[in-house]
Structure formats: C-alpha cells, structure tokens
Amino acid sequence: MASELNVEDLVFNEHRNEPDYLELPLSRQTFLLVALAVIAIGLVILSRAVFLIFFKGDFYVSRAGANVNKQIDMPAPRGIILDRFGKPLTENTSSFTAFVNAVEILKSPGESEALIVRLAEIFNISPEGFKTMISRADLEKKTFIPIARNISLSQAIQLRSLNLPAIQIEDDYIRKYPDGPAFSHILGYVGVSDEDNSIVGKSGLEAQYDNLLRGADGELIIYRNVDGKPLDQKVTREPAAGSDLTTTIDADLQKFFYQRLQSGLASLGREAGVGLAIDPRNGEVLALISLPGFDNNQVSKYLKASNQPLFNRAISGTYTPGSTIKTMVALAALKEKIVDPKFQIFSAGFIEIPNPYDKEHPSRFLDWKAHGWVDIYSALARSSNVYFYEVGGGFEGLKGLGIVRLIDYWKKFLLGEKTGVDLPEENSGFLPNPEEKEKRTGQIWRIGDTYNVTIGQGDLLVTPLQLLNFTASIANGGKIYQPHFVNSGASSVLFDYSDWKDELSNVQEGMRDAVQKYYGTANMLASLPVSAAGKTGSSQVANNTKTNAFFVGYLPAGISEEEGPPKIAILVLIENAREGSLNAVPIAKDVLEWYYYNRLK
Fold first, then answer.
1. Among 415, 80, 419, 175, which residue's Cα sits nearest to residue 276?
2. For residue range 472-493, what is the model confidence (pLDDT) as tens digits?
3. Taking 60 as the threshold, does the pLDDT of residue 45 lie above it?
C-alpha cells in the first residue's frame, strides 16, 4: 500500500543536511552611529532653518515681495556747496530717472532683446553696454535699477509711450553749477557710479566730501496684485538729503580773479595759467583758478581736449619756480650765516667759473641784467641771479650753502611733500639731488646745477600751491599752515619757524622793496592804496624756448599797526609768457586792489 505523502516531511528531509543558522542582535555601536547620524542631520536642518528665519528672513521676505511689488530707489538730493558767506555754488534742479526691472529682462532673454535694442537707441548707448549695466546690478537688493539719470523730457515721453511694466520713470534731480568754469577745479563734478548707478562725486570738493554731500536714498514700493496691476504705493523710507558744505572760498573774489586772469591770458594769446589766494593767518583757500578750465555742467565735452582743461594745474601741475624761490634761499643763507643782511656782492651781469673740459672757454652763468653792488634787500627787490648763485653755490672766497644744505632747507619748508589740501590728485613736486641725477643721466652733479636750482631753474619742481603756501608763511611770520577749503577745527600748522625773527624780517623787507623801490621788479604795485610785498619770477622751460611768468605776494605788507597784519597772499602764473614783472604783476595788482576795496576797506 502506498505511503502517504507529507509535505512537511519532504521539506524537512530536503534541508536536513544543511547547517543551522542563528539570528544575532545588532551591536550597540551600530545603534550609536545611526543615532549620531540622525542627530547631525537634524542639527544641519535646524541650523539652516534658524539661519533662513532669523538672519535671512528679511531678505527672502523682500525677495518674495519683489516678485510681486516694485521696489524703487528715491534719489536723495546732494547737499549744497556754499562759499564762506553762505552763497550757493551748486544747485539741484528737477529731472527724471529711468528704472528697469532687471529680473524681467534677464529671465526672458529672447523677448527682451528687442526691448534692449530699443532702450539702447533711446539712450544712445550700445546694446552690449546696456546688457553690461544690467549684469552689474545687485539683484539681491533690488530688482528695479536706474539705467539712465537726468533724462530729457523727450526721452521720458518715449519711454512712457512704450507702456511697459518693466520700465518706470521717477522724479530725480540734476546737479547744476551756476557759475560753470569759474569754479570748476574747486567744485569738480559728479557722475554715475560704476557699482550701483548712483550719483557720486568724481573730482574736486564733490569727490573729496562725497560721503557728506550724498545723503541716503529713500525707497518707494508699488504694490501689485497677482496679475501685476498696481494696487497701491507707499514710501517705506524717505530720502535724506545730503549735508550742506560751507567752504572758505570767497565767491566774488574767485569770479573776479578768474575773469582777470582769463583776460590777461587772452591779451597775450595764451590759455594756460594759475591763480591762487590764501589767507596767510590760517591757511584758508580764498580762490583757486586753473586755466584752461571747463564747464562742469558738460564735462563730457572736455574729456579728449588736447589742452587738458580737466587737469588742475594749481595743485597737480609742477613747475620750476624761477626767482620766486629766492626768498627761500635768502632765509637759508641768513640762518646758516653764509651772509649777513648788509653783505654785498657785485653783479656785472654774469659770473664765470673754469670749464674743466675747455679752459679757454669758462662756463658763464648769466644775470638778467647787471645790477652792480647788491645786498640781500636789493638782491630780492631786483631779483639778482648773481647774488643767489654765490650765496647758494659759492664763488671764489664765499662758501655757499651747497646742494646738501639746500635740499635740507627745501625739506624744512615742505617742498617735495603734498600740502594735504582737501582736494584730490595733489602732486608732491620733485627735489633734485646728486645721486638721482647721476643714476638718471650718468652725469655727476656740478656747481652749475647748484647755481641753477638757487634761482629756481634746473630740475627743482614745485606746485603753485606749495609755492604760495610757503610765501604765506613769510607773510604771517613763520607758520606754514595746511591749506584747506573746509574748516574742521583749529588750523593745522605743518611747520613753525616763527622764532627766525631776524631772518624773516630781512626777507620781508626785501619783498617790500620789490614793490616800493623804483628798481623793484614789482614796483607797479606801489600805487596800491595799501602797502604790499611781492616777488616775481621767470622760469625757462622747453629748452629755454618758453618762459613761465610768476608773481607771489601779500597785502597788507605788515609795516604799520593801522594796516594790520597780512590778510591775503596770492600767486599768479602765466604759462609760456615773457617776464613775470611784465605780465603777471598787472593781474596781481588788479586782484589785490579789488580785495582791498571790497574786503578790507
């Protein structure tokens, strides 16, 4: 009889010869690692949530709002720049600014290409330039960015006629300069920032005090529904106008000085020159003119001009100072006791020294005329070259200062250094020395080089501001102030040599004689209604083919209690002129006369 089949037995028999298996529990380490991983992931998620909520919450709220609402900057008007009497030198006039929604343009490049081309045509820029402007925008802060400021009414009408929600026209202002070129190198001009298209100072006081003048832009939000239609608008932050800036400039003096220098240059057929005026009692700059100038309402017209109207010759130009440097040499020679005030030197119109290369032809150094016997007073008044050749470089039995001591005194009087005036782009000038000359030219320093620098020729270079600032220190009795356009407390004294009373007194007398004596090179000023002191100078440049004419001086000359101390020091420079006494002095006379009748009388 057949046996019954049992399924369990069959299965059991099939696996009976296989080994048994045991179920083992997981180790504690495995559970610990899994727990740590879960905790770590949880901490990462929690920290990210905290960061997004508490640190970036406002940002994402604003970004979410920006996707629905329009956020537009409201430009803050710049502060007004004023002269010392409160007269406005700048103004802000109403204008328009065009804003574009950069997100809309960037997210639909195909559709926006035609719009970009059209906008580029309206603003007369290339489509590539327009795209570059958009790409620079910081879209994390705002979606609407200014693409053109100070647009014309016709441009505003063209934009509005496009009837595009991506374009917004808002009120703005234009920075205006009512007196244009007369103040251009002082005030400077503004332009559009490369970073955020805001208006910033680009030169002059506009750049120097930009943070003070700019203020803070406001913010306008236009609320829209899901279809993009405007529902409401709200000013979330009012624009805060920039602070006004009161300067030391005398606007009426500036305009008169500008017009007089301009007419003087025109009569000579010249176009380049400098006019400066400083109050010697404190270093306040009263006037600064650099010609040719420019209209800072239309700066783009001058960017490629060959005569460099944007270059501020008063603080950035460097010049050989000619005979105006003789007052500095005189102070040094007296201080070092090279000569005493009465010591006389004979000027036959030249001196000669042996020529080591050709004994038959000695080196001759010319005076501008034969002056006869001169002491330090008449040497300054007549501007004798021979006198200063000898006290500066030495001759025969007289041991001069020498180049080493000359350099030391140049540095004492802060030549070769920036004055620290509160205008950008100041130059420091150049002080020559034997080592530099030999390295540059391969030739040694010779006595002739020393002679040349003692009369302001050769390689010595100063800025007009440096030269006048030193002259002002003679006027005030020995204090070199830091020149400035904005008062920020007590005037800073850069160097004080007021204890050189005898030396200063002698140089002051020589400068008064230059005006009062019939032989003085500035004798034309003797007809002024108040005493004056001055020094003229002529410096040969361009291989002696051109002459720059200088005058530096001050008024009153400080010779009586009734007149009081000097209150103005001025400099006049005419590039490519003739003699200083022929061309620079008449301009100086008219400026000083104007100042006496309008400010001192």
1. 419
2. 999 999 999 999 999 988 899 9
3. yes
- Helix 402-412 vs helix 447-454: crossing angle, to nearest 10: 30
Return d(Cα 412, Cα 401) in angstroms, integer: 15
What DSSP element (H or E) covers 464? helix 464-476
Angle (CA) 579 585 590, round 5°: 155
The three-state secondary structure class of 284 is strand
pLDDT of 225 above 70:
no
Give the per-residue pLDDT at 54: 67
Instruction: Compute the 3-state secondary structure of the chain and give helix, strand, coil in percent, each to the nearest 5.
Output: 40, 20, 40
Task: Please state, in angstroms and as integers, the Cα–Cα distance from residue 141 to each residue in 133, 145, 418, following that order.
Answer: 16, 10, 40
Alpha-carbon distances, residue 567 vs 251, 284, 285 (angstroms): 17, 11, 12
Helix (H, G, I), strand (E, B) or coil at 384: coil
Backbone CA torsion sign across 157, 163, 164, 165: positive
Sign of CA dihedral 513, 519, 520, 523: positive
- The more confident residue out of 567 and 143 is 567
* Six-digit token string for 281: 């009692």
In whole angstroms, what is the distance from residue 96 CA to residue 119 CA?
15
What is the tens place of the pLDDT at every residue in 124-144?
A: 777 787 777 777 666 555 667
The predicted pLDDT at position 27 comes to 72
C-beta of residue 484 within 8 angstroms of C-beta of residue 248: yes
Kindly report, residue by residue over 414-424, the tens digit of the pLDDT: 999 999 999 99
Cα–Cα distance measured from residue 53 to residue 61, given in angstroms and rounded to the nearest whole number = 10
